[in-house]
Design a protein that fits this description.
mainly alpha
């Protein structure tokens, strides 16, 4: 009974603050305050407050919460151990089998782009000639030599 009275008083005070806020032309803030103020009143009207009050003073309910907490802790521990090991035993065995299969017979590499782009008439197409890069006049040509090598490797 006292919980319902407190929740109703909180709701009334919150709605009063919302009215003052709306009077100051801050309508969005007033709507948000009114929404927060109506939550306790809604909880009282739906009976959630009575349920919480009955649960808070019940030793059986607290024992149930302890059992739920223990179950959650056990579940979290097993998941952590499973992640540390790298999955379930079946997953580890499947990964080991696939690793052995790949070591015995590796997959064929994909054809290069140059082989796949040949014309159907049987004539080999020549790649477009690229202008050679002029050497730089400054001594900083070695600064980007590794980057140039990577770009040349990828045909850029």
């Amino acid at each position: 009974m006292i919980a319902e009275t407190v929740c109703s008083a909180v709701a009334a005070a919150g709605l009063g603050i919302a009215v003052v806020t709306a009077y100051r032309k801050r309508f969005l803030a007033a709507a948000r305050i009114a929404a927060y103020a109506l939550v306790p009143l809604g909880l009282v009207m739906t009976g959630v407050v009575d349920w919480i009050a009955d649960t808070a003073f019940s030793p059986t309910a607290w024992a149930g919460f302890v059992v739920l907490g223990g179950a959650w802790a056990l579940f979290a521990t097993t998941r952590a151990v499973e992640r540390r090991r790298g999955g379930t035993r079946k997953e580890r065995r499947a990964a080991a089998r696939s690793a052995r299969a790949e070591a015995v017979a590796p997959a064929a590499s994909a054809p290069t782009l140059g082989q796949a782009s040949r014309p159907a008439s049987g004539q080999a197409s020549r790649p477009a000639s690229r202008p050679a890069a002029a050497p730089r006049a400054t001594g900083g040509s070695d600064d980007f030599s590794d980057i140039e090598a990577i770009l040349k490797k990828h045909g850029i």
